[in-house]
Amino acid sequence: MSNTPSVQRVEQTLRRVAALRSLFVRLPHLPSPREQRWIDEFEAFVCGQGAACCFEALEAGFRDALRRRDAASILRAVERSGDWILSDPTLHPYYYWAQQAPHDSAVAAAATEPPRE
To answer: Domain of 34?
Structure first.
């Protein structure tokens, strides 16, 4: 007997994984204590209370702003940070989404995962 799974078994497993992923996507995100500190640092930076924030805080703050559909916070952070974000492969997609969101309510409503260009 071979160790190769049958096609039906593989399809069944993939359906189960897809169902689990669907469930996880609907669950609310709860930030870890470290992520919450980064989000707080990002919020302080966006509000003008901090002169700068670290890359991790920008990334966590952008993700949080995307989850909350808060394009304005992302745009303010880019404005305060400078143009380097436009060339960063991790942060630029969030900026691109934030630029499109005010003009396209479907883009803003559909954002459940980090955007891709």
So the answer is: 29-110
